[in-house]
Design brief:
The chain is 56% helix and 13% strand. The protein is built from eight helices and five strands.
Length: 181
């Protein structure tokens, strides 16, 4: 398996960790939101506003199918990607999935200053933001927990999370990944 998928709630650090991880292991990096925006020539917020969530989720699934055909790649998925269609099963069939975990409180602190660029969080602040995240996480948790590995990203620096992922790769499966390349 020569794909690594990073899943988890928006703002948990998937993109930052993905870039660092890809650089460290010498693979390519794809951020699914950027991939979708480039493919549709609109931002995620514009797609949600103009086309609706249903359209976006279908576009997301199609993009995941396309990306899953790539080799030697680290993929940062959208927060809802694993929760629709058979996306989490597709990721687990074609690569290694890592759930990047953060608590609702840590996520709300991180996301508080950037809710306007996130369609599902628009107009939420303080305790209402934390409660929304907690409720949505409880709905998404069964999908996130299907990831093959779980790592906590409530650290001072994302490099520590990257090191944990690399250690998991080395200790458990990296030899399999290398032998399939």
């Amino acid at each position: 398996m020569n794909k690594i998928y990073l899943i988890g709630y928006m703002g948990c650090g998937k993109t930052t960790i993905g870039r660092l991880l890809a650089k460290q292991i010498g693979w390519s990096f794809v951020d699914m939101d950027t991939y979708i925006e480039n493919r549709h020539q609109e931002t995620i917020s514009e797609l949600f506003a103009k086309q609706g969530e249903s359209f976006f989720r279908k576009a997301e699934h199609t993009s995941l199918e396309e990306i899953s055909k790539s080799e030697n790649i680290v993929v940062s998925t959208g927060g809802g990607t694993p929760c629709f269609f058979d996306n989490i099963d597709l990721m687990n069939r074609t690569g290694l999935s890592f759930y990047i975990y953060m608590s609702p409180k840590a996520l709300s602190i991180r996301l508080e200053s950037n809710t306007k660029n996130r369609p599902l969080l628009r107009d939420k602040k303080g305790k209402s933001l934390e409660c929304f995240i907690e409720a949505q996480l409880s709905q998404r948790q069964p999908f996130y927990e299907k990831a093959l590995y779980r790592v906590n990203n409530e650290r001072e620096h994302p490099q520590a999370t990257v090191e944990e992922i690399i250690n998991i790769l080395k200790n458990n499966i990296w030899t399999m990944v290398k032998s399939e390349c």
